[in-house]
Amino acid sequence: MTGLRFDLRDPPPGAAALRAEVRAFIAEHEVKWTPEVRARSWMGFDRDFTRAIGARGWIGMCWPRPYGGGERSFLDRNIVLEEMLAAGAPVGAHWIGDRQSGPLILRLGTEAQRQKFLPKITTGEYAFCIGLSEPDSGSDLASLRTRADRVDGGWKLNGRKIWTTFGHLCDWMIALVRTSPAPEGGSKHQGLSQMLVDLKAPGVTIRPIHDLVGEKGFNEITFDDVMLPDDALVGQEGAGWAQATSELAFERSGPDRYMSSHPLLEAGIAALRDDPTAATTLGRQVARLWTLRSMSTAVAGMLQDGADPVRQAALVKDLGNDFEQGLPDRMRDVIDTDAMPEEMRRMHAYLTQIVPTFSLRGGTREIMRGIIARELGLR
């Protein structure tokens, strides 16, 4: 069983000072956040707050300075992410760009793409979304039908993407599309490429999808003869599948995969601090949280070292989703809803409705377990 090591990492130098700085910054802003905003966690979208974070140098922290980055470590970045998630900060306006779109452009983009996009991600001017899922494709992402065909002056894009988080609020999408047919008898993963798409371009139609709580975080996006320039291609033509799956290691391993319900856990601990009957349940949740944190930090260290921890990231996501999805039920096990303090009750109500989505974003539980099973030699 190779490739499933999680080597513990020590805090980076200056970790305590950085954590204190972030907490002081959050204290200036959190007085405006309702319990529902805090319960949204990284699904809250606030461009003004994102610009304030960018001004502190906390977006693109690991990127080179010429592109607006801070040349800090992945472990430093993890500290900022943890503190934002712990507070339930509305960080969605930069989350995708900082987490994966920016790193993809940094790693595989042209110099012109780096100069154009990365500095504007770090300041919060550009918000990115991900164009992967499509109608009728389910979890079989390689069956996608959105096409980008070469034409004079660039590419012509046609097709649809669905479940696009923040698509109606974002400026750009990195879309996985088919640029050539899959070879007969070959793998359908061939012939896929990644494209930069301006979501305000003619021919782009965005239709929000309302979720159970009445919000429209997801979207269906249609492309009708959308013209893309020659330089819309990210990385190599035809290498999109490998690029996209490698990119998912950034999406699946971070603290957002086990801390989405964290403000509710903190509220429960505060409400039940003197209740000995709740100690066992709360203790188990805290122990699980710290185990997942150690695993996630280990993956951050692997990314810092230039590794590609796809399998470890899948395991963090699967176990983390199980943990954060179960927190509303665990809280209800130890305190009746009517007995919860008002802020806790409002967070609990929101999370109870929204947690089923947690195991869908970033790849379904079945896909994660398939990746893990292959590593264990079970398939």
Describe this structure in words.
The protein is α+β, with helices and mostly antiparallel strands and 379 residues long. 45% of the residues lie in helices and 13% in strands. It has 12 helices and 8 strands. The protein has a 4-stranded mixed β-sheet, covered by helices on one side. It has a 4-stranded antiparallel β-sheet with strand order 2-3-7-6, with no helix packed on it. The protein is globular and about 70 Å long.
Question: How do the strands and helices of this protein lay out in sequence?
Answer:
Layout: H1 15-29, H2 35-40, H3 47-55, H4 74-87, H5 92-108, H6 111-122, E1 128-131, E2 147-151, E3 154-161, E4 172-178, E5 192-198, E6 204-209, E7 218-229, E8 233-234, H7 240-252, H8 262-271, H9 279-304, H10 310-334, H11 342-354, H12 365-375
Parallel strand pairs: 1-4
Antiparallel strand pairs: 2-3, 3-7, 4-5, 5-8, 6-7
Helix pairs in contact: 1-4, 5-6, 5-7, 7-10, 8-10, 8-11, 9-10, 10-12
